[in-house]
Model the fold of this input.
Amino acid sequence: MKDLFIKRFEYYKMLGDKSFEQLSNEQIFWQFNEESNSIAVIVKHIAGNMLSRWTNFLTEDGEKAWRNRDEEFINTFKTKQEVLTYWEKGWECLFNALRQISDENLYSIIYIRGEAHSVIDAVFRQLAHYPYHIGQIVYLAKMMKNDSWKTLSIARNKSQEFNAEMKNKSSENNLSANSSPVCYQNSSEVRDEFKQ
Done:
């Protein structure tokens, strides 16, 4: 199961990474208005959450005493590189934690703000939370880049071509039904009843 979790999170990390590649230092810090967050601030929140939730996650509450969530929404970064370094630090913490998941602890109880969660539920909780914010990053990046945006998924008006290409690849490589590069990866952990 942990391999499947890692693959899903890797996909969302890739969306962020490919968005950052297209942005200048100034664009990383742009915000629409005072009430909106810049990409830098969104990264600060995501990574701050990751560091708190996943550091010693099996033995300590996921809301660490040292975390200051409110501070995550105040930019303290000066450069794009500082933002990316913190982004990577958060993901490293998450992936290290996911590698600790096993069949034996998947349903073990861990705590977030004193609330009991199974390990699998805590993972699902973050599989909803992180993509929510990464979608904000992609949306902001796409607005700023406008016509020069390089799509991260199927290009506009190219769905039929993409589908035909996928069918050709599928028949050539005899891939399993769970193999879309858009979101899914091959996984032996997907139960047969969910395969087409």
About this structure: The chain has a mean pLDDT of 90.
